[in-house]
Every structure is written in C-alpha cells, then in structure tokens.
Amino acid sequence: MNLAKCFNCLKMDLGVNGLEKIVDEEDNENIEYDHVCIQCNHVVSKHQYEFFLEDGRQEYRMNCLLCGFAEDSISVAPFDPRKASASNNLI
User: Fold this and answer.
1) What is the pLDDT of residues 37-54, one digit of tens each?
2) Which pTM value belongs to this model?
3) What is the pLDDT along the chain (91 residues), one digit of tens a residue?
4) 62-85 in b/e burial notation, b at 16+ Cβ within 10 A?
5) Domains in the chain, start-ordered, CATH in brackets?
6) What angle do CA 7, 8, 12 make, to 5 degrees?
7) For site-directed labelling of 12, which of 39, 53, 60, 74 has its Cα 20 to 30 A away?
C-alpha cells in the first residue's frame, strides 16, 4: 500500500519520531519508530525492524504499512555454504 498523503492535513511531508532500540537478553535487537506528518504530527505508520541470530545466520525482518514488509538472512560465518551450493548448481 502506498500512501498518497496524510489523512489529517492532506499533505505528504513525513519525518521520524520516537526512535527506540531494544536489545533483549538473547541479544535480539528491535528498532521501532513512527513515520509522522511534519505538518500536523499525525502518526502515519509504525516502522519495526527485528534482528536476531538463528542457526549461524543473522535474520532480519522489517514491518511497516508505509515501507512494506521484508525478510532477509545472511551467514555470520566467513564462508556461506548456502551461497556456495547455489553457485555450484549454475556450472
């Protein structure tokens, strides 16, 4: 869903407010902030990032009605066996 304008003032001039970083006991990292209209301070969307380690990989998730939804994963080791096997299949 793409946002055309602020629901309150009908302008499209966004900023960021309330940036908060939370790291839990397991070193999982969550970052949250609000997309806000600079004109009227209306909260347009809440933006969330989540970073955590799982099975030797850094996992990433993003959740925001304005920016979209995404997931990604990357190996924390110098050699990523998933990428090596994928490139071997191309030969």
Assistant:
1) 999 998 888 999 999 988
2) 0.70
3) 446 778 888 888 888 888 899 888 888 899 999 999 999 998 888 999 999 988 888 899 999 988 899 999 888 877 776 666 555 555 5
4) ebbeeeeeeeeeeeeeeeeeeeee
5) 14-88 (2.60.40.4240)
6) 65
7) 60
Instruction: Count CB atoms within 10 A of the CB of residue 6.
Output: 21
Residue 62 contacts residue 49 (beta carbons within 8 Å): yes
How buried is residue 7: exposed, middle or buried, by Cβ count under 10 Å (0-12/13-18/19+)?
Answer: exposed
Question: Which residues are CB-contacts of 47 (< 8 A; sequence separation ≥ 6)?
Answer: 16, 32, 33, 34, 35, 62, 63, 64, 66, 67
Q: Which residue, 47, 37, 45, is CA-closest to 13?
A: 37
